[in-house]
Amino acid sequence: MLQTSAFKIDFKTFTYKSLWVIVFTLAIFAANLSSGDLRGDSMVYAAISKNILTLHSPLVMHFNDAIYLNKPPMLFWLTALSLYVFGHSIFAVNLVVAFSALVLNLAFFYWIARICKGYNLAYLSIFCLDTSYVIYKNSHTLKMEALTAFFIVMAMIFFWHYLKDKRLMWILGFGLMSGLAVMTKGFLGGIPWAIVIVYLLTPVGRDIRSRQFLLHAMAALLVFLASFLWWYVYISLRTDFLHHFLYDEVWARLVTSDTSEATQYKHKPVYRYLWFMLKDYFMYLPFFLYGCYHLYKHRDSNIDREGLTLLAIFTIFCFAVVHLISTRSERYLYEFFITAAFFSAYGISRVPKLKNVNFASWLKVMGTLYMLFILTTPLKLGWNSYTSLRDLQKLSDNMHVPIMVNKHWLPSYVDQAAVTFFLNNPPLDSAPKGSYFTILPREYQGPLKYKLVEKTRQLRIVLVTKSDCVTQSDD
To answer: Tens digits of per-residue pLDDT, 324-341?
Structure first.
């Protein structure tokens, strides 16, 4: 068996070849850094990240007035660092996901170039990846998909390197990257280990099974556990995390119940994801299927056997595992579409009239046109829902009128997160003697009289004077 790959990559050549990838990725995912808005989970994650700085609590996350135990801290740490360096802004928040998308693209580009022993399919794979709707949509706002996928892809790259020369450092890197994936999105980061286990059961995996591999795998497992277990032990001792995780997260997600957040199979059946693929991947799905068929029927000597096996297992496993996640959102197919991009690219390259096409040169033109289209007519990512709160803070400072937020008037936890993130100082929790600004849900119809300052898709920002204020109980 070959101990080294026939295709070598030196740093200087890779840097030059990856310039197009860098420009293409930044044009697509960094075009809206300062514009747009945050909403849903993105708004929540931004508020949690800000609380790291304001509450000086880097290990125990806080959301609004409660301890946040749902997700590990890696994304929050990086976002807090960006907020600290670049200031409190949407730019600083979105910079983290743009950076995550960039390093993910570079890692995937490197891996495909090595597996395919050349850059032609690597360029096309990146184009298929970044023009996929699910990838594009979920790599703009503060979500965990891109960062988690980066660590998972890096883990698989390290393991692929280990298959080539059996050096301990590669499998230790595999364990570390898997652990960092866990520190980003919980035990979804264990996907690389599952892929390796399945790989060992395949005919290709027989070559690696040995006493030496077992010892190396045990060392990698120790690195894997050490990289995240310290934090889980810490918060288990400081909070009620164990009960929260086992009952509210694991049990609620895996056991069907009408009163829990469990997976509702009768409402969201398995074929739901097939619809997502048809709807969001329609332009690449035929090429994906054709690429899978062609690779299965015709062995391609230019594609590394071990790498192809890992990609195939990765793709099948990521499509299967999303069925255990309760919300059944299309964004949980994010990791699936990464490796699917390679099979789609291969399918395109096997179309008879495209077999001899130099995609690296072709994409310089097509990619540039696509970048110009994105930059000039970007998908509107902002809802004008919460950024008006930033202007409210400036108005409050200039007019010397305080801001008061009654949580009973603002029951949505996302709205409360927006208040935490966009307002520099904690708002008053009870009405002052004079006039004050307050924030209400858009549909508010209570007894409070006010002068409307601005209405957004989510909120009403109002000015209440003493004569307008009608007492309302907290009930």
So the answer is: 665 566 777 888 999 999
* Tokens linked to 39: 């909403």
Q: Is the dihedral of CA 390, 452, 42, 100 positive or negative?
A: negative
Instruction: State the Cα torsion 413-250-93-78 to the nearest 10°.
Output: 140
User: Counting Cβ atoms within 10 Å, is residue 471 exposed (0-12), middle (13-18) or buried (19+)?
Assistant: exposed
CB neighbours of residue 281 within 10 Å = 24
CA distances (Å), origin 5, targets 13, 144, 153, 164, 216: 17, 32, 18, 7, 21
Bridge partners of 439? Answer: 461
Q: Computed from CA positions of residues 381, 383, 389, 391, in that sequence, does the dihedral angle turn out positive or negative?
A: positive
Tokens 């595999």 belong to 174
Nearest to 317, CA basis, from 304, 336, 331 = 336
Given the structure tokens 């230790």, which residue do they identify? 172
Residues of the chain short of pLDDT 50, as ranges, are 1-4, 256-267, 470-475
Q: Closest Cα to residue 327, out of 381, 285, 273? A: 273
Nearest by Cα to 159 from 148, 140, 172? 172
What single letter denotes the amino acid at residue 26? L
pLDDT at 256: 47
Q: What is the pLDDT of residue 159?
A: 96
CB 451 within 8 A of CB 463: yes
Give CA–CA dist 86/36, Å, rounded: 17
Task: Identify the CA nearest to 124 among candidates 366, 369, 379.
Answer: 366
**Predicted pLDDT of residue 388:** 82
Distance between CA atoms of 359 and 109, rounded to whole angstroms? 14
Residue 160 has, within 13 A of its CA and on its CB side, a CA count of 25
- Tell me the one-letter amino acid at 160: W
Please answer whether residues 406 and 429 qualify as being in contact, where contact means their C-beta atoms are separated by less than 8 angstroms. yes
The distance from CA 470 to its chain's CA centroid, rounded to whole angstroms, is: 45
In contact, 168 and 219? CB cutoff 8 Å: yes
